[in-house]
Amino acid sequence: MGSRMAATSATTFSIGSTMSFSPKGSSLSQSKAFGMRLNTRSFLSFSGLKGVSSISCESESSFLGKESTAALRHSVKPKAQKQNRRSWNNLQPQASYKVAVLGAAGGIGQPLALLIKMSPLVSALHLYDIANVKGVAADLSHCNTPSQVLDFTGASELANSLKGVNVVVIPAGVARKPGMTRDDLFNINANIVKTLVEAVAENCPDAFIHIISNPINSTVPIAAEVLKQKGVYDPKKLFGVSTLDVVRANTFVAQKKNLKLIDVDVPVVGGHAGITILPLLSKTKPSASFTDEEVQELTVRIQNAGTEVVEAKAGAGSATLSMAYAAARFVESSLRALDGDSDVYECCYIQSELTELPFFASRVKIGRKGVEAVISSDLQGLTEYEEKALEALKPELKASIEKGISFVHKQPVAA
To answer: How far apart are CA 151 and CA 155, in angstroms?
Structure first.
């Protein structure tokens, strides 16, 4: 991951494949550097850098898409209106949200924590793991961004790591290894998720909960059942982070069709494993035409992209960096929604009535109270290929959901 910071007469902040934030949101470049030129005549605090009330940016790709890039161009302008609840002091963003990462010392947890640390909306970053988290926290605490970093180690400190938290992100669990399916992860990760969500229910029941631990087709239903048994389940605030499927679909389609990444948006529905991952290429924006062969090739690659990484790492790990990137994008979207942004849309795996399945991944609008709307139009006017693929994924997804639900009912939830 290459980066460079250059100080010239007009300070330039450029990070390739990392994030750069505005008071309103964030932008992260996948391929080319994300350039921001900040005139240094009149200063404001900007994630540890200095800049001014005028900003221009040129980006080939974006962490949160075209809308956020547009917001970046405009959000640093002084606002006379007082309807925004944040207090603007020299245009400084207000860091006012606490985020907990459960499993912060792992392969996903560490880069994810770094990316969340860069958000100007985060006031406190709580890092929890069963071991080795103190060093991660010490390391991150040296980054000159607003959030305070606190570490919590072991079961005895889990409750404290969740006190007063607004967003909980759970990447904890074992990673896939060559030859291992997501189903092979189930017995280990199911128990981890169950234990962690029990603690969330007891200590921050109103928080947004982001489940990353695989297989999320099963772990999200596990989380839902635990929350129900604890009497605090709000389906609008429980999310399975399937964002990586969208990130991959956008990347692969842009490469195949020679499009600018910032312009590409491919909704991905269904679940988050194998054939349950269904990219709706016919709904690609901007509109693009695909041959039958291209549809088949792209769909299969998106579905098997995790295995592509596992095999390439040859036993050394799974998709940790791209997953951290995708999860950070989803966290930032959640923070923007909590902060009052009324234009936040993401694909995620949630309790849903969009199909006959109780859980389903689709594009949703997120607001301060969680899911505000499910975008049902994405499933209308599908191609014959997509219709068949949708029907084909349902039995497998149904089985995964039922497996998660039955796991909780076979084991007592901690009192």
So the answer is: 13
User: Are the CB atoms for 344 and 336 separated by under 8 Å?
Assistant: yes
Give backbone dihedrals phi and psi of 341, rounded to 5 degrees, phi first: -65, 125
| Strand ranges, E, within 280-378 | 345-351, 359-367, 370-374
Report how far residue 60's alpha carbon sits from residue 251's, in angstroms, rounded to the nearest whole number: 12
pLDDT of 46 strictly over 50: no
Q: Which of 74, 126, 272, 409 is catalytic?
A: 272
Mean per-residue pLDDT of the chain: 82
Spatial neighbors of 315 by CB under 8 A, at least 6 apart, are 177, 178
Q: Which of 400, 378, 410 is nearest to 185 (CA)?
A: 400
- The mean pLDDT value for 42-49 works out to 30
Q: Is 272 a catalytic residue?
A: yes
Nearest-angstrom CA–CA distance, 348 and 4: 33
Q: Which tens digit of pLDDT belongs to each residue from 66-93?
A: 544 444 444 444 443 444 444 334 444 5
| Ramachandran angles phi, psi of 83, nearest 5° | -75, -20
What are the pLDDT digits (tens) for 337-361? 999 999 999 999 999 999 999 999 9
Tokens of 223: 């989380």
- Report the sign of the C-alpha dihedral through residues 390, 391, 396, 400, in that order: positive
Q: Which helix (H) or strand (E) holds 340?
A: none
Q: How is the chain split into domains, by residue range? A: 3-75, 97-242, 244-401
All residues at 6 or more sequence positions from 390 whose CB lies less than 8 Å from its CB, including other chains:
269, 270, 278, 379, 382
Please tell me the CATH code under which domain 244-401 is placed. Answer: 3.90.110.10
273-318 tens-digit pLDDT: 999 999 999 999 999 999 999 999 999 999 999 999 989 998 888 8
For residues 243 and 329, the answer to whether their CB atoms sit within 8 Å is: yes
pLDDT in tens, 359-368: 999 999 999 9
In the prediction, which pLDDT does 283 show? 97
DSSP annotation of 1: -
Tokens, residue 389: 């693929």
Give 169-234 as a 3 state SS string.
EECCCCCCCCCCCHHHHHHHHHHHHHHHHHHHHHHCCCCEEEECCCCHHHHHHHHHHHHHHCCCCC
pTM of the model: 0.80
**Which SS3 state, helix, strand or coil, does residue 365 take?**
strand
Topology of the domain comprising 97-242: Rossmann fold (3.40.50)
